[in-house]
Amino acid sequence: MRKLRKGDEVVAIAGKDKGKRGTIREMVDADGVIVEGLNRVRKHVRPNPAKGEQGGIIDKEMTLHISNVALFNPATQKADRVGIRILEDGKKVRFYKSNGEVVDA
User: Fold this and answer.
1) H/E run at residue 72
2) Rounded distance between C-alpha atoms, residue 80 and residue 67, angstroms
3) What is the pTM of this model?
4) In angstroms, rounded to a whole number, what is the distance separating the alpha carbons of residues 20 and 34?
5) Residue 15 sits in which domain range?
6) Each residue of 25-70: pLDDT tens digit?
7) What is the CATH number of the domain that holds 40?
8) Could you write out the DSSP letters of every residue in 2-57?
9) For residue 30, what are the contacts with CB-CB under 8 A and spacing of at least 6?
């Protein structure tokens, strides 16, 4: 079970966007995430007439390392660490380390 998932609201805890919040849009690989509104860069793109792509400068979101984001805890309004707990019925759930609340029931 992964500690962070697509759709989770996270806070950047390192880098140029430190302190900003966003939602995980995509899990790139084992340790990369793309977060809406974070790590935006201006990228120069060459035109490709075969694909019908126009060239120019585009804004896009690049990947962040998973260690540079933390799950946002709405109860404390801060970034929080996440643990995994096994319930009595054998189901695995994520919980916030600071207050023990279950993230997703």
Assistant:
1) strand 69-73
2) 12
3) 0.82
4) 14
5) 9-46+53-80
6) 999 998 999 999 999 999 999 999 999 999 999 999 999 999 999 9
7) 2.30.30.30
8) -SS-TT-EEEE-SSTTTT-EEEEEEEEETTEEEETTSSEEEEEE--BTTTTBPPEE
9) none
